[in-house]
């Protein structure tokens, strides 16, 4: 896969599969998500409906043989469904051109793992690999709020933070690029897990929300959903602060790429319309004028399907 990419297009030979159970037949899409210790796979229709699922676990501290075994376990589902291709949404640092998972801090077993080559050998169809936070924008582009748009952003929130950007019809995925969690938003901010200070991740994830809630006397085991609408000024202020922190990183993305639309996934959905409105209001206040007004929308996809939909979108976006 070359680094320079042509505009995304629907492959003409793909057709929408039937909605029954069992193998989906011609036109089916294979989708795989690779996480530390877990591999998830699905057969999907060209319309984004999940027909069948499989998953397997492996010891993230083991060697690559453990990942091989997990892939082989889920590959049977894909082989039976005869997909036209397989897309892989992988955690960590990814080299899409080589089909490699370069490194995942929490999973030494995935370091340098050639997931693309392994899956091609198992399934016998073309495989494309991309970072899971970046690839989810393709799920929104083909199956969600981004349909018909050539530029917008898809945002992961919660324990994992990241942004996937579609710009002028192409996923912004330069070699060595990341998903934005470690962009600096405060030079003197908190120490991040990467060793640097002030990363966006340090103020806009579930970990920060729980730590801040404990500091405010709200308890350390809280959820965004429980905080929204909870009585008391402390909860209200915390929700507003969290929304401001999420918008802080998105404002930088908007300034650079003029996305116009941001689709929120993950924990943000627990906050519902009040949380969405707070982020949109803050984002509009933070960015300069010009261009279309910034909009923020919530994803309608089930949390567990976001990365799989993006992986299916990789197949649809193949040349």
From TrEMBL:
Q: Which Pfam families does the entry link to? A: ROK (PF00480)
Superkingdom of this protein's organism: Bacteria
Family listed: Belongs to the ROK (NagC/XylR) family.
PANTHER family in the cross-refs: N-ACETYLMANNOSAMINE KINASE, ROK (REPRESSOR, ORF, KINASE) FAMILY
The name this protein goes by in its record: ROK family protein
């Amino acid at each position: 896969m070359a680094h320079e990419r042509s505009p995304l297009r629907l492959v003409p030979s793909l057709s929408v599969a039937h909605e029954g159970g069992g193998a989906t037949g011609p036109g089916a899409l294979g989708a795989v998500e690779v996480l530390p210790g877990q591999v998830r796979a699905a057969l999907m229709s060209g319309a984004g409906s999940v027909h069948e699922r499989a998953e397997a676990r492996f010891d993230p501290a083991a060697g690559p043989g453990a990942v091989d075994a997990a892939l082989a376990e889920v590959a049977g589902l894909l082989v039976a469904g005869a997909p036209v291709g397989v897309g892989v949404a992988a955690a960590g640092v990814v080299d899409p051109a080589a089909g490699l998972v370069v490194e995942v801090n929490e999973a030494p077993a995935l370091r340098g793992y050639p997931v693309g080559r392994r899956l091609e050998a198992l399934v016998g169809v073309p495989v494309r690999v991309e970072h899971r936070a970046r690839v989810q924008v393709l799920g929104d582009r083909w199956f969600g709020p981004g349909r018909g748009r050539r530029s917008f952003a898809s945002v992961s929130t919660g324990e994992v933070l990241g942004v996937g950007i579609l710009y002028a019809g192409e996923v912004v995925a330069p070699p060595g690029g990341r998903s934005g969690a470690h962009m600096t938003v405060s030079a003197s901010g908190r120490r991040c897990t990467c060793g640097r200070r002030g990363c966006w991740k340090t103020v806009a994830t579930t970990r920060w929300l729980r730590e801040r809630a404990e500091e405010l006397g709200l308890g350390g085991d809280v959820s965004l959903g429980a905080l929204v609408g909870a009585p008391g000024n402390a909860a209200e202020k915390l929700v507003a602060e969290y929304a401001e922190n999420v918008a802080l990183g998105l404002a930088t993305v908007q300034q650079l790429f003029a996305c116009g639309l941001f689709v929120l996934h993950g924990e943000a959905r627990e906050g519902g319309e009040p949380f969405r409105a707070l982020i949109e209001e803050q984002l509009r206040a933070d960015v300069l004028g010009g261009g279309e007004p910034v909009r923020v929308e919530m994803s309608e996809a089930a949390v567990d399907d976001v990365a799989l939909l993006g992986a299916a979108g990789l197949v649809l976006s193949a040349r």
